[in-house]
Amino acid sequence: MSLHRSVQRFLDLPLRMKFVWSFLVVILFGGLVSLFFGTRLEHKTIIGLAQAKVRHDLASAWMVYNEKLNDIRDIVLLNAGRDSVRAALLAGDRESLFRALVRVRRDFNLDILTITDRFGRVVQRTNPSGIFGDDQSADPLVSRALSKETVTATEIIPRPELLKEAPEFAERAYLKFIPTPMAAPRPEDHEENGMMLKGAAPVLDEQGKVLGVLYGGILLNQNYEIVDRVKEIVFKGEKYKGKEIGTVTIFQNDLRVSTNVTDAEGNRAIGTRVSQEVHDAVLRRGIPWVDRAFVVNHWYITAYEPIKNSGGEIIGMLYVGMLEKPYIDLRNSVMLTFTGIAALCTIILLIILFFITSSITNPLRRMVQATKRIAQGDLNHQVKIGFRDEIGQLADSFNQMTENLKLANENLLQWGKTLEKRVEERTKELRGMQDYLLQSEKLRSLGKMAAGVAHEINNPLTSILINTHLMLEKLEKRHEFYENLSLIADETSRCTEIVKGLLEFARQNPPQKTYTNINDIIERTTQLLENQASFQNVRIVKDLDPGLPAIKLDKNKIQQVFWNLLLNACEAMPKGGQLTISDSLSADKKWIVVRVADSGVGIPKENVNRLFDPFFTTKSSGTGLGLAVSYGIMQQHEGKIEINSEVGRGTVFILSFPVEDQREDSAKKGGTYE
Amino acid sequence: MNSQSKRRILVVDDEITVSKSIRQAILSDQYEVDMALSGEEALKKEAETSYDLIITDLMMPGISGLDLLKTLRAARPEVNVIMITGYPTIKTAVESVKLGAFDYLPKPFTPADLRGLVARAFKSVQAEDRDKGGVAGSRIPAGYYYMLGHTWLKVEEKERATVGVVPDFLKTVGIITQLELPKVNEAIMQGNVCGKITDADHFVHRIWSPASGRVIEVNTRLVSDFSLLRRDPFLSGFLFRIETGNLEEDLKGLLLAK
């Protein structure tokens, strides 16, 4: 599996598991590393201490060993100097020598005590064999004593020499090798020579001449005095689980000849041999060995040092060993304690972790549930967290958000309702706009048609007009057709006027807009109206807002509109009345609204809708184009024109001119204000 | 009066009844009137007989009135042309004047209207003959805009302008007996009637407005003293002052005196 997928799988775990796993990994890793290094350190310390102690113990063993050698030296030295011994040697009184020396051998627990003459020939042995006369001058110690030296050393004693003293010694020395797994191979299968602590001192006459040599010794083979003494002094007989903690061994070459190491049956393990490793290091190379070693059947912390004879040859080893088990057990118990503490800490940590993650994940879970409920539309749900940490704050924000969402939702609903209303309003407006467009389209096509008709009609009218006039010129005024012809001429002229109006209506001149105050136009128009003699009984009331903004208008066209409206209003009041013109800014400041109200006869409902249609007129002399033209002009100004009328009470024309857009428009073009 | 001394007039209109009516309206012992029913026919007849005056409809299939005018002005600049316009595209009418038409007349009209115009056209020819000696004061001052043979327009500051009659127009008018001027506040349109002059011969001469706008001042001195028109045509003899409505567009239809 790829690393990426493993990471992905980890990331997909629940939050708590992520925490647990992360902590566990850290703890385990840290624990293992510290355990590893701790163990190593501890091992080093404990084993190091043990090794130091073993070295020290070995030194103690040497002390005991050398003490024994010194004892022998003292014995031979003292007895060689005894007068009785000297006299008996001089006299050759073997009986006296035996008596004097045998007690010494017994008292001081020596195995041999033998005296030679000045040539090194044995005069008397203290053992019962009774053999004498053999030459011992080749013995290294004896030969040195003959030259007046007192010497001690550990020496290998060959079997014939042992037999000369006593067959018992040869028996003690004879050891069959017990097969030992890691021992170095040897051609022999037994040992027959002995190893002995030996000392020799010269016997001198009064002139200092050598009379002979006294030598004595202790056979080490199967003599456990030294090893047991060392054990007693150094280890004080301490035991660990029934086993001796300390062991001491004297090796003859690589063979255990004196030891308190026991085999499986509890017997002293003599006859077994040392391992090849130790053999090579200590016996071959003469290097002391301090390390753990498998001795007979247990691991020991051991120290080996070579034993040399008087010639400096390595002939054996002295060994001290401590059972490793107590240290290993100590180490293990320390390790166990450490591990136990670590495990305890981990458990405590996991428990804490459980609570911490709970305090994180529980609120989160609650929040997840809350979001689900909100998603389902329940906006009243609130998350309750008892504390004020980041999650608590998150929950507060979340609640705030929910609250806002709720408000927004309510607003949205409200807006929805408002929107519906607005759509309704706008639909109404659009319908109005549609009517307006329909009306303007009607006007446009009618305009086109009117222009065409006017053009076509002009030619026949020209002919009629010219010919009628020509006839009138020819006729006398009394002629019976003169009046008829005059009528024709007048009516033709009226047709001309109608055609003119039609063309006026049809003309689609773009308006020439300049910034104008609408009040000026109204003032000017009413002034013109006041000059008209026929409307003297109409009272004109003006209510104009002086604060109106200037807007872009075609003055002439708008004046024409007002003129048409005012004229219509006056004509609606044949018996006089009141004409009110007022203007003001709409509430939203987007429109200037002008109202032209009369107190005239009013317009029947069925006529109101047709009012702006071209040629619709209620007047006998009208062309029916005035309002249609006005409507067209208002359209060119993006304005509106509305009618409120009630029969018998009067009519109100309401004109609306847009304000804002034009102003922006002018700002772009850098238009000027008047 | 023999045919030699009679003025020869050609009436051009694609509608025969109109042509006939016009012919009858102006036919007299002074004028000999021919008719053509198309621009092509008119050019053919003009090539055969040199006419003194041509009255042509503006809107005709084939060679239009305006084309006819251009061709005639190029070939015989001395002949006067009166444009008759059925569908009063005033712009076209004003343009025709700029191109050298003597005047124009919107349909429908009475015989009197036409006769007055014709009489004025011939008077202008006599006046030109007289002018060959050179008469001072008839020159239009530099910076004045004018409709050839009709009115001038002096643009002043801030969309205001003065309107007057050029001397050439007055040369075609007899002794002035009556002057009709617009009222203050009245709206006027370029190419439309803005005043009328009646002379001793009872001819009514229409004055075409050189620009659109609203009258803001009328020359009251002129109403009591018509002689100012001829004595000081460009200053105190002005007709009225206007607030212009569409000056930029209007100036395109006018000539500028240099």
Write the layout of secondary structure elements.
The complex is a heterodimer of chains A (674) and B (258).
Chain A: H1 3-12, H2 15-80, H3 83-91, H4 94-107, E1 112-117, E2 122-125, H5 140-146, E3 151-157, H6 159-165, H7 167-173, E4 175-176, E5 190-191, E6 194-204, E7 210-219, H8 225-235, E8 239-240, E9 243-244, E10 246-252, E11 255-259, H9 276-284, E12 289-295, E13 298-308, E14 314-323, H10 325-375, H11 390-474, H12 482-506, E15 514-516, H13 518-531, E16 538-543, E17 551-553, H14 555-571, E18 577-585, E19 591-598, H15 605-608, H16 626-636, E20 640-646, E21 650-658, H17 660-669
Parallel strand pairs in A: 16-18
Antiparallel strand pairs in A: 1-2, 1-7, 3-6, 4-5, 6-7, 8-9, 10-11, 10-14, 12-13, 13-14, 15-17, 18-19, 19-21, 20-21
Chain B: E1 7-12, H1 16-26, E2 31-36, H2 39-48, E3 53-57, H3 65-75, E4 80-85, H4 90-98, E5 103-106, H5 111-131, E6 145-146, E7 151-155, E8 160-165, H6 167-171, E9 176-180, E10 187-188, E11 193-199, E12 204-208, E13 213-218, H7 220-224, H8 228-231, E14 240-244, H9 247-251, E15 255-256
Parallel strand pairs in B: 1-2, 1-3, 3-4, 4-5
Antiparallel strand pairs in B: 6-7, 6-15, 7-8, 8-14, 9-11, 10-13, 11-12, 13-14
